[in-house]
Amino acid sequence: MRSLTTWLASRGPEVAQALDQRREAICNAVTNRLKSTFSGLLADIESRHGSQYQQVTFSRTPQRLHRLLLVALALQTPSVLQREIEWSVRLLLRHGVTQHHIQSMVRWYFEAAQREVALDDQDRDNLAALEEAILATIYAVGDETSP
Question: What stretch of H or E contains 89?
């Protein structure tokens, strides 16, 4: 397998385009999974900010991950992905979202992407490597912020 950097340079923009063509299906699958699995998440915030807070958050969060992944693929720069994931995990952890919640969403995103987008084996392997890098970043940030 070629290195991730080499793959990004040769295939990143094309894979980004393929993912974006299936954005709605991928993000809707993740949104539905968040709603069904973590129905009580953000309930305390929702009580202060209105009844739509959870629904909007569950809808927008997979879209944010999608856009972030597209930027990393199109610009062939996983460092952007790592910095943004670090920032968002720190923010989410302060609001009662756990590593488990975030990692589950990331896994569901990549499961949906694999289901929805026709990719060759090399693209699948490299997307799996990106997924593992994101999960490792979430784990590392969670460890540094735990008491």
Answer: helix 78-93
